[in-house]
Amino acid sequence: MIMKKKFFRIAMTIAMLVVAQGAMAQPDLVKVTFSGTAPNIKDFAQSYARNEEADDFFIQFANEVKAGSHKFVNTETVCDIPNGFASYDLESGEDGSLERIEMCYWNCANKKEKIVGINRLNLQGESIDESYVIFYRYNNAKREMRRINPPFSKEIDPIDWTKPGRTSKERIEYARSVGNEDANGWAPIYTLPRVGKNINVRIADGEQLPLAERQNYIYEWNGNGFTLKKID
Q: What are the angstrom distances between the C-alpha of 214 and each of 135, 152, 173?
């Protein structure tokens, strides 16, 4: 059982690294520039985009966010400064797939730091969706944010999606031994909050586990990170 779980984690690590390389730059340190006493979501986006590792899609996102909320053909930009949230959607006219960047921040309980999240999504419609989220801890005294491990109390494994009493025994057993070929289908898809503080999470491929048999979750903000919480 330990070897199976380890194999899944290795498979997921490889998969996420592949997504990460094509999805977004990952600087370890970002200097944040702003006027006033604290940065807003535009400041975080612009500062990240100025990093030499920023890719073209993130730079486009930052430029669109700078212009405020607006819509064009096949694109939609949200810049919600009061709620500390921004997003940029690019829709494909051919297959209806959607590429999205979300960015938001949370004020930590110590009132000296913020957690900044950046989520890159590829929503494929009938294919398997992909999500890759990274986090930074921002220090206002230093005016910089440093990359951190996801501040989750627990990361979701395939078996966590199952619900005893509702999930069939066959699916539970399969979830315990998900192979590399199906690992992406059982991966979590994140949605950062525009309203509220919790991160919504769902399984990448709903066909892997029917909704009636699936345990649902949110990552609940706890003042310094997120606690995995079951919801019905």
A: 27, 21, 14
How many CB atoms sit inside 10 A of residue 168's CB? 12
Q: How far apart are CA 171 and CA 186, in angstroms?
A: 12
Residue ranges for the chain with pLDDT beneath 50: 1-23
CA atoms within 13 A of residue 103's CA, in its CB half-sphere: 26
Q: Distance between CA 127 and CA 114 in Å, rounded? A: 35
Write phi, then psi, for 146 (nearest 5 degrees): -115, 140
Q: What per-residue confidence (pLDDT) applies to 1?
A: 42
pTM, entire model:
0.86
Decide: helix, strand or coil at residue 147.
strand
pLDDT at 66 (0 to 100): 96
- The SS3 assignment for 125 reads coil
Q: Rounded to whole angstroms, what are the CA distances from 80 to 25, 74, 83, 103, 134?
A: 23, 20, 6, 10, 20
